[in-house]
Design brief:
The complex is a heterodimer of chains A (463) and B (82). Chain A is of the alpha/beta class and 463 residues long. Chain A contains 15 helices and 18 strands. In chain A, the strands form 4 sheets. In chain A, strands 1, 2, 9, 10, 11, 12 and 18 form a 7-stranded mixed sheet that branches. In chain A, strands 7-6-14-15-16-13-17 form a 7-stranded mixed sheet. In chain A, strands 3-4 form a two-stranded antiparallel ribbon. Chain B contains 4 helices and no strands. Chain B is mainly alpha-helical. Chain B has a single domain, classed as Non-ribosomal Peptide Synthetase Peptidyl Carrier Protein, Chain A. The chains are: A alpha/beta (463), B mainly alpha (82).
């Protein structure tokens, strides 16, 4: 039996693509190497707790009435009901830089404009203009540096860096800057739209999507790693699984990233450089009463206390002075009696972690978690002594479970915006197609599916 | 198939795409896009649903025929009537 579409990878981009296809194609198959879905954004259980891997916030918040908003459009195209997911907006976020400089923002752009008026009065017009520019400018085809673009509107270097930093934290695939296209997408997704999390867990969200695929007759196979993408005369004919099985298919969507996709095509020579930015993250679970005593009321803190602030791969194992903290109980609408999960996330140096012996690795993990928590406690107050559970993961852990080279969750610095790798019937979706994060990945999956489904003339209807 | 039946098929498909759309007062002569705030992907969904439920293959050059209820009826009538 020949599949209409084979999707490689059951992460959010692969599942979104498969769901979109399943609504219209007869035979859709998702192949996942791991035993569960999610890819870069999945879940695990320890000591009876359910943990999400890495998720701080989803971007691109919009009210339900805003039909044209990317998030609502996405859910519509997937046939997913927003009420079943539940949107919990952030209470606010705070950017913290050396010498007590800080800037707050939430999902209402007026707050950030107000902060800028107060702290950097001369810059607020430039900020308003950059917002207008981002709002009317699409990312495709844009090249150059995001910082350079921002500089044309924001003359004050400190403000510029403070605005850029949260965007880099949630998307950067290369060091200390964003490419212009990613900058445009992220500025819109974080500042113009906003941050939220689903009311349901990532595990439930993944089940919602995969069940919808199965209900429509699509298939998902786990523990099914792909060895190669087969072609004949420049056209996709199917995939070979590790172990030898051949699965015929007319079209393939690869979500495993650019380097791994070139490997599957046996075109290793074209393999792009790997991303250098990976993460070290610690998770602490607190009882709700203890969490209520922490300082501040923001959901997310982005701190860059290095002098001067930068965003390079750390020379050591981690860079504890540069990171972010996310407090799950501070999402609006989160049940007050639920346990609180605190995530403290820093950049991590994959190759340094990789070289450690098993015993040195365990020690290093403990030390890195301690150094990170000390800085974080300076911001939100002590939490380690009250934690009822703690766990950490390193760039090596990310690499092991996500298979991303170098544990670089935001992918390769080289992006392929059209998803085209020069093979008929094959398109790339996900992080290396240029859209990052859970929402970005899903939009990418749907866009790529649409491109395969969509006749070119649709543009005419847009008038 | 009668015009009203075709109109109902179309509106049912649109409601399936987004059940919050108000399809009660549609002017059949005006573009759906302007009245319902539909985007190009919504039209793809309409075309795909017609293909799936009624086995109508709509070639890409014919998509603009779905712009209004009236033009859709004119286009679909010979294709829906056996």
């Amino acid at each position: 039996m020949k599949y209409d579409v084979i999707v490689i990878g059951a992460g959010f981009s692969g599942l979104a693509a498969a769901l979109r296809f399943s609504r219209y194609e007869r035979k859709v198959l998702v192949l996942e190497a791991h035993h569960r879905p999610g890819g870069l954004s999945s879940w695990y259980t320890r000591d009876g707790h359910l943990f999400e891997t890495g998720l701080h916030a989803l971007t691109s918040f919009a009210e339900p009435s805003n039909r044209a908003a990317p998030i609502n459009r996405l859910l519509r195209q997937l046939g997913l009901k927003r009420e079943r997911i539940g949107f919990l907006p952030q209470s606010g976020a705070k950017v913290i830089f050396p010498e007590d400089h800080h800037l707050r923002f939430n999902n209402d752009l007026d707050m950030l404009s107000g902060e800028i008026s107060n702290v950097f009065p001369g810059q607020v017009d430039g900020f308003r203009r950059v917002c207008e520019y981002v709002d009317k400018t699409g990312p495709v085809g844009r090249t150059g540096s995001g910082r350079d673009l921002l500089s044309t509107y924001i003359g004050e270097p400190l403000l510029r860096e403070m605005l850029l930093f949260p965007l880099m934290t949630y998307s950067a695939s290369s060091e200390n800057d964003l490419d212009c296209a990613t900058f445009l997408l992220m500025f819109r997704a974080v500042y113009l739209e906003g941050l939220f999390r689903p009311a349901i867990s990532i595990k439930e969200l993944l089940s919602l999507i995969s069940d919808a695929i199965l209900d429509l007759g699509g298939e998902i196979r786990y523990r099914a790693p792909v060895e190669a993408i087969a072609r004949k005369d420049g056209r996709v004919t199917g995939v070979h699984l590790v172990g030898g099985e051949f699965i015929p298919g007319r079209r393939v969507v690869s979500t495993v990233g650019l380097p791994a996709t070139f490997d599957l095509l046996k075109r290793e020579a074209e393999r792009p450089p790997e991303g250098r930015l990976s993460f070290f993250e610690s998770i602490y679970v607190l009882k709700s009463a203890d969490a209520a005593e922490l300082r501040g009321d923001e959901t997310i803190y982005f701190y860059n206390l290095a002098s001067p602030p930068d965003y390079y791969c750390p020379k050591g194992l981690t860079g504890p002075l540069v990171g972010s903290i996310c407090l799950s109980h501070r999402y609006q609408g989160k049940a007050a009696d639920s346990e609180a999960v605190i995530r403290v996330t820093n950049l991590g140096n994959y190759s340094r972690w990789r070289k450690l012996s098993p015993s040195a690795y365990a020690e290093a993990k403990k030390a890195a978690a301690g150094a990170a928590a000390e800085v974080a406690e300076g911001i939100i107050g002590p939490f380690r002594d009250r934690a009822i559970f703690h766990d950490s993961f390193t760039p090596v852990t990310i690499n092991r479970f996500s298979r991303r080279p170098g544990g670089a969750i935001y992918g390769s610095p080289e992006k392929h915006w059209d998803g085209d790798l020069g093979v008929e019937g094959l398109l790339l979706a996900g992080t290396d197609q240029g859209l990052v994060g859970v929402v970005g990945a899903m939009i990418s999956g749907v866009n790529i599916a649409n491109r395969m489904l969509m006749p070119m003339r649709l543009a005419e209807l847009e008038g | 198939m009668e015009n009203d039946e075709i109109k109902k098929i179309l509106l049912d498909i649109i409601i399936e795409i987004d059940d919050e759309l108000d399809t009660g007062n549609i002017d059949p002569a005006r573009p759906l896009r302007d009245q319902l705030d539909l985007d190009s992907m919504d039209f793809l969904d309409i075309a795909m649903a017609l293909r799936k439920c009624y086995q109508i293959q709509i070639p890409e050059e014919d998509y603009p025929q779905l712009a209004t209820i009236n033009s859709s009826i004119a286009y679909l009538k010979p294709r829906l009537t056996p």
